[in-house]
Amino acid sequence: MDVQFLGCGDAFGSGGRFNTCFRVTTGAGAFLIDCGASSLIAMRKFGVDPNSVETVFISHLHLDHCGGLPFMIVDGQFQSRRGAPLTIAGPVGLRDDLTRAMEFCFPGSSAMALRFPLEVIEIEAGATVMINGTTVTSFLAEHGTDTPALALRFAREGKVVAYTGDTEWTETLLPLGRDADLLIAQSMFFERKVKNHLDYATLKANLGRIGARRVILTHMGPEMLAHLAQVTEETAEDGMVVRV
């Protein structure tokens, strides 16, 4: 299993980084974890065919994590001429928000007859579901959103990748990352405490309790980027590929 960080930036493009989007490639296919507004651009930059993605998992309904979906769908309709089914899975509220986003970006697009099958699945917080060969367990994150924000744990081909999504510290991150082969963890700030987001100091103090085998930090803001020399954990870069 390979994980490519197509985008590892925050909502504001700090450090010139793309919005959050990770591609997980397995022996049976590929899926995305989040699809931020710049994700289609990132896929083009790094030579990723959007049609190769069978599933997109969304952690929460902020545009730096899901805003690329309208572009990916319309691209599949008119540019990439997608034929394979596409599944989009995320928190409760995803279906309605996706419709609104489609209409905002491309009026009339939510009602067009697509050339490919599109399925939208809403995942309840606390649920474990199987979607296109991937077992996904969701945990409720603390991100101050009207709709649930999720931390997601993915199991496939004997490997586990866990992703905090955007959240402040919550004890649900312990079972999320326990014994995971890779934990992708938000680290928006270095030591500054800001509600609804993780800071590196708090995360580091709890990594031993989490017990993930490997940790890569992402979604880093200016304060965090300015202190990377003091960070001992791995940090993501756009385009980086890691083997799990």
Structural notes for this entry:
- The protein has 244 residues and is an alpha/beta fold.
- The protein has seven helices and 14 strands.
- The chain has a seven-stranded mixed beta sheet.
- Helix 1 links the parallel strand 3 and strand 4.
- The N and C termini lie close together (5 Å).
- The mean pLDDT is 97.
Short summary:
By secondary structure, this protein is α/β, with parallel strands linked by helices. It contains 7 helices and 14 strands. Helices cover 22% and strands 29% of the residues.
Task: Please render the helix and strand layout as text.
Elements: E1 2-7, E2 21-26, E3 29-33, H1 39-45, E4 53-57, H2 63-66, H3 69-78, E5 86-91, H4 94-105, E6 118-123, E7 128-131, E8 134-140, E9 150-156, E10 159-163, H5 173-177, E11 182-186, H6 200-210, E12 215-218, H7 222-225, E13 234-235, E14 241-243
Parallel strand pairs: 3-4, 4-5, 5-6, 10-11, 11-12, 12-13
Antiparallel strand pairs: 1-2, 1-14, 2-3, 7-8, 8-9, 9-10
Name its key features.
244 residues, alpha/beta, Metallo-beta-lactamase, Chain A, 7 helices, 14 strands, globular
In angstroms, what is the radius of gyration? 17 Å
Main β-sheet: number of strands, strand sense, barrel status? 7 strands, mixed
CATH fold group: Metallo-beta-lactamase, Chain A
State the domain count.
1
How many DSSP helices? Answer: 7
**CATH 4th-level superfamily:** Ribonuclease Z/Hydroxyacylglutathione hydrolase-like
| Helix content bin | 10-25%
Q: Would you count the extended β strands for me? A: 14
The end-to-end span amounts to: 5 Å
Which CATH-level-2 architecture?
A: 4-Layer Sandwich
Q: Please trace the helix and strand order, writing H or E for each element.
A: EEEHEHHEHEEEEEHEHEHEE
The portion of residues forming beta strands comes to 25-35%
| CATH class label | Alpha Beta
Q: How does the helix and strand content classify structurally?
A: alpha/beta
Name the overall outline: globular
Which regions contain 5 or more consecutive residues with pLDDT less than 50? none
Mean pLDDT: 97
> How are strands sequenced across the largest beta sheet?
6-5-4-3-2-1-14
